[in-house]
Design brief:
4-stranded antiparallel β-sheet, binds adenosine-5'-diphosphate
C-alpha cells in the first residue's frame, strides 16, 4: 500500500501559500504530520480527502490518481475533520446503523455486524446505548473513528484528533489509531510531539507550507546522539558567551534556575552536561534551522 504526494502546491484566494511543493510517500502504519499552527496541515489533509484541489502537483494511492479517480479513491478513504460537528441525541449504535445505511450497507444483518465491529475497534461497545451528545471529548473522537471505519477504509486521515483531550483520553484514542494502522495507512496531524513519539513509524515536519523533513522518529532521535547538552545559566549569559550552538528549549529546575537545552556538535564548555536526545529536540531544531 502506498500514497505518493508529488509536489503539491496550493495558494488560497487571499494570497496565502498554504502548501509549497510538498512531496511525501506514505506506507501502511501510523504517519504523524507535525507542524506549528498555520503550517498547512489541514490544507494538506483536505487535499488528501479530495475536498479541495491543488494548483499544482499530483497524488496517487496505489497508482490511482486520487483526483482523476475520485469515486474509487473515496470508497477506500476515511476522513475525520478537525470539527466533526454537532452530535444529535441518539445512541451510538443507532447513529452508526444510520451511517452504515448511508454508506450503502443495505442488509440489516450486515449493518449489525459492521456496527458491532467498529464499536469493538473503538472500545465503545459498553456505551453503545448512550446518546453520543453525552459522550466526553475522547469518546466523541472515538465515535468519529467508528463511523469512518464502517466501510473498511485503507487510507485514514485524522486532523488534529487529540486537541483538547486530557492525557488519559489522548492515550486511549491514540491506541485505537495504533490498532487500526497495522493494515492501513493512518495519517494524523498534530502540533504535539508526544503524539508522534513511540506511536509513529514515520513522520513529516512541515512549516509555512513547506516540508522540512520526512523521517522515522527513531532515526531522527538517533541522529542527535552526542549533540544535545544542558546548561544552567540565564539566557543573556548564554547568548553572550557562546555563538556556536543553537538553543532549543528552556525549563526551570527544582531550584527555580533556568536550564537551557542546546544543540552543538561538541561540548561547548565544562558547564554543559550531555543529554539523551528526544523527538522534541529534533522538532525544535528543524524549525530553527528553517527560520
Ligand atoms: P494548520 O492546519 O497547520 O494549522 P492550515 O492548513 O489550516 O494550517 O492553514 C495554513 C495557512 O493557510 C494559514 O495561514 C491559514 O490561515 C491559511 N488558510 C487555511 N485555510 C484557508 C482558506 N480556506 N482560505 C484562506 N486561507 C486559508
Amino acid at each position: 500500500m502506498k500514497l505518493s504526494i508529488n509536489q503539491i502546491s496550493k495558494t488560497y484566494g487571499n494570497g496565502v501559500k498554504a502548501l509549497d511543493h510538498i512531496s511525501l510517500e506514505l506506507r501502511a502504519g501510523m504517519f504523524g504530520l507535525l507542524g506549528p499552527n498555520g503550517a498547512g496541515k489541514s490544507s494538506l489533509m483536505r487535499t488528501l480527502a479530495t475536498l479541495q484541489f491543488p494548483d499544482y502537483g499530483s497524488i496517487t494511492f496505489n497508482d490511482l490518481d486520487i483526483f482523476k479517480s475520485k469515486i474509487a479513491y473515496r470508497k477506500q478513504l476515511g476522513y475525520l475533520p478537525q470539527e466533526f460537528g454537532v452530535y444529535p441525541r441518539e445512541s451510538a449504535s443507532r447513529l452508526l446503523n444510520y451511517f452504515a445505511l448511508l454508506k450503502g450497507i443495505s442488509s440489516k444483518k450486515d449493518r449489525t455486524i459492521a456496527v458491532d465491529r467498529v464499536l469493538e475497534q473503538t472500545n465503545l461497545t459498553a456505551v453503545k446505548k448512550k446518546n453520543v451528545s453525552t459522550y466526553s471529548g475522547g469518546m466523541k473522537q472515538r465515535f468519529g473513528i467508528a463511523q469512518l471505519l464502517l466501510n473498511n477504509p485503507k487510507m485514514i486521515i485524522v486532523d488534529e484528533p487529540t486537541a483538547g483531550l486530557d492525557p488519559a483520553e489522548r492515550s486511549r484514542f491514540l491506541n485505537v489509531l495504533r490498532n487500526i494502522s497495522s493494515e492501513n495507512i493512518v495519517l494524523f496531524s498534530t502540533h504535539l510531539v508526544e503524539d508522534v513519539r513511540e506511536l509513529c513509524q514515520d513522520m513529516a515536519v512541515i512549516t509555512q507550507g513547506k516540508l522540512i523533513s520526512q523521517i522515522a522518529p527513531k532515526k531522527a532521535i538517533d541522529g542527535l546522539k552526542g549533540k544535545i547538552w544542558e546548561v544552567t545559566m540565564d539566557t543573556e549569559e548564554l547568548k553572550s558567551q557562546f555563538i556556536h550552538f543553537i538553543a532549543l528549549s528552556h525549563r526551570y529546575d527544582d531550584s527555580n534556575e533556568l536550564v537551557s537545552r542546546i544543540y552543538a556538535d561538541t561540548k561547548p564548555s565544562d558547564s554543559f552536561r550531555a543529554c539523551e536526545p528526544n523527538l522534541e529536540d529534533y522538532y525544535f531544531l528543524s524549525l530553527k534551522e528553517k527560520s
